[in-house]
Amino acid sequence: DWAATKDPASQGATGDVVWSAKEQKGAMRFRGLAKNDPSVSQYQLWIFDKSRDQRYPVDGGVFDVGEGGDVVVPIQAKIPVGEAVLFAITVEKPGGVVVSKRERIVLTAKPAT
To answer: Using CA atoms, how far apart are residues 29 and 47, in angstroms rounded to an integer?
Structure first.
């Protein structure tokens, strides 16, 4: 399940993430996440991999949220993920970034153990 931060975009947001390390596929579900203007900012997923430097999580893709804040988004990991230890959603410039400054972390989720 997603855990909201103090960021205003996450107020009342819930949902969950499903990830298969074997298939390197997954999806994220959000309810109540704040609508974004894609010309100003986009949401971006980061996957923290136990085997990688935590300063450089794996880019899981960018996405937008429309009215109502309910959306299902496929995960598009840019490189293979060994063992996911944390998923984080940030707000970034349109098109996303290569390395996030993590100034606006909206939601986080830890895999079930």
So the answer is: 15
Contacts of 66 (CB under 8 A, 6+ apart): 35
Locate 26 and state its tokens.
């997954």
E strands in the chain: 3-4, 14-20, 25-31, 42-49, 58-63, 71-74, 84-92, 105-109
- Total residues belonging to the chain: 113
Residues 74-88: pLDDT tens digits?
A: 999 999 999 999 999
- Read off the pTM: 0.95
CA distance 23 to 41: 30
What is the rounded distance in angstroms from the CA atom of residue 35 to the CA atom of residue 25?
25
